[in-house]
Amino acid sequence: MGRILIQKYELIRLLGEGGSGKVFLAMDVHLDRLVAVKESCESVFLEEMKILKELDHTGLPIIFDYFMEQGKAFLVMEYIEGITLRQFLLKHKKVEEGQAVKWMLELCHIVQYLHDRHPAVIYRDLKPENIMIRQDGTLKLIDLGGAVRFACGRETPDLCAGTAGYCPKEQWKSPRGDISWDIYAMGMVFYEMLTGNHPAKPPYASQALAAYDKSIAGTLKKIIRCCISENKTGCYQSVLQLEKALLGYRKVNLPLQFLQAVRKTILFAGILSAAAYLMLPLLSGVPENQIPFPYLKKPFFFLSLTFIFHRIFFHSSNKNNYLRRQEKNIWLTRKDFSGLIMLLALNILGTWISVILGITFPAVYAGEDTGNLWVEMRDDYGRKMLLKEDAVYMTDNCVRFELPARRLPDEKISLQMIAVGEGGDVYSSRIFHIRAKEDLN
Questions:
Q1: Is the dihedral of CA 68, 38, 115, 180 positive or negative?
Q2: Is 32 annotated in the active site?
């Protein structure tokens, strides 16, 4: 860019731009170091810059200088290499629970340091865009231009600042700062880290955490609710209280864990009993003529194959798995219990019910004249075969003929069976007389 400010800071390129001004990467030509220079039209910031320059915390950029030039205010601060939390979320969608808690604790230390100043410094614009993740994984809070002092009883209002979705309603009604504003914003940032849901975009923050990930600890859900609750009574009155809650979120609650263990035991026993009751017919063997599903010939092979498929596509280590995120797909969804497994479970359930109730599936007659042909022919497995004139049937074991009594046209009929060889020789001939019981007519 080539522009030099106060004959000391040479602007190199634009790093970012927001409602409060522009941020440039610049070179301090006197000290030969890279710095970040924020330009703003708000000269009111100069009074606050005097306070910000005194800040000294590893989680905050070092303020080197501030000045006015051509009616604009400039803030010179440390240049931080890394990515913003927003860039991280765009790439990874959300933050793993343990890492999110770790980063929240870092934010607590930084924000509490600001609140401990005399007078207190209220950050007012905490959001992923203003949180830098350095190369070593630690955080730095940037863009302190919106931070203001909070002095009780001060009559002159300060400048309003904030971002929709991360600010409480009262922040837009009053320009004077309050530490509860930062606590609310921390809750919203924590919510977004765990869910990947931008609170200023649909479906907004009204969705419960369980709608995104049921595995999120219940204590973390309670922490977020307390941060963003409109009723401040009983909620966190300071960032120290929030930090204490985060540090103890994994502490053991014995009565609660006992109840959860009892519920899980009962649920597991019920599932195990149902599974055993379901699999027993398969283990004892089910006639193939009753079950028209191919996987039942080798049930455990197909069940194992389905389980492996489910693990690969729904529980792989790749959290950005493509198939898992096709929410409108009919048979692959983001739900923990996939449509594929549900389909298999319904098939097995239908099989189990049919076996228990003794229901058999009707065979296909393939257009044979059932009115004139009373004899049925079945293969080794009991499946009905089509009787066709001059047809050749291959068999490894036997072929049986059946004459259902209910299909006899008369109470008594004679059946003649003749065995004829390929040369036309008659090897055997028998005549049978069959009488149906009276209650069948």
A1: positive
A2: no
